[in-house]
Amino acid sequence: MTLRTTRHSLPRQVECADAVAERGLLGDAHADRYSPRQLLLADAGVYRDLALPPHALRENLLVDIDTSALESGMVLQVGNDVLLRLMFQCEACGKLDAFRPGLSRLLNDRRGMLARVLSGGTLRPGDPIRDVRLSLPAWSDDWHERVLMVLDALPLDSVIEYSDLARLAGVQSSYCRAFPRMIRNLGPDYAGKAVAANDPSTAPRWKGEGLFDHAPILHLVE
């Protein structure tokens, strides 16, 4: 179990971590109410198969589960209290090649599964994990489809800044450079929905309120 105090810092192993509902892991750089990437679950089997050094996948939770077989929308219970909403598979980006040349290519779809915290509590190594057999709306592994989904959720007469579009879709800020062309290719119905931070538009800026809302499910968990 690890935390990263900044996005550029190395993972720091901890004896326990506090999961906060709708926020993420307390003290972790990815704790963000409006992010689909609050924490990363990685498969311990990948470390064995590829003989990786500890924390090479930069995961928060190392689990004995084939994460590539997990599906978006599943809800996992970790320990007695924590519920995690599985979002989408984490892309194996080129930054991982710093641990081993070509690692991102070797991993393919085995980097791990990203999740959000539905119900908080304390996480400890060895906590049991179970599928509670509930399903929430699925998110695509394809970032293009996630961007489109966010744009479709935009409230009427509002706009979203490129940086917030990246944040809500779960992609790096560098993707903002691709947004103008991508949105143009979507056609006239999407024109003007996303803008740069310095755009003079006076339309309300949407930050993502309501995007991750869901019907109450805690009473359904046994």
Characteristic key phrases:
222 residues, single chain, 3-stranded antiparallel sheet, 5 helices, 6-stranded mixed sheet
Which geometry do the CA atoms define? globular
Helix content: 10-25%
Structural class by SSE content = alpha+beta
Count helical runs. Answer: 5
Which strand order does the major sheet show?
6-5-9-8-7-11
Q: Calculate Rg over CA atoms.
A: 18 Å
Order of helices and strands: EEEEEHEEEHEEEHEHHE
Q: Poorly predicted ranges (pLDDT <50, ≥5 residues)?
A: none
How much is the average pLDDT?
Answer: 92
Per DSSP E runs of 2 or more residues, the count of β-strands stands at 13
Content of β-strand: 15-25%
Q: Tell me about the biggest sheet?
A: 6 strands, mixed
The separation of the N and C termini measures 26 Å
Notes on the structure:
By secondary structure, the chain is of the alpha+beta class. Helix content is 17%, strand content 23%. It has 5 helices and 13 strands. The protein has helices spanning 44-50, 103-107, 143-152, 162-169, 179-186, and strands at residues 2-3, 12-13, 17-20, 24-25, 39-43, 61-63, 74-78, 82-89, 113-119, 121-123, 129-135, 160-161, 194-195. It has a 6-stranded mixed beta sheet. A 3-stranded antiparallel beta sheet has the order 4-3-10, with no helix packed on it. The protein has a two-stranded antiparallel sheet with strand order 1-2. A hairpin with a 3-residue loop joins strand 7 (74-78) and strand 8. The radius of gyration is 18 Å and the shape is globular. The two termini are 26 Å apart.
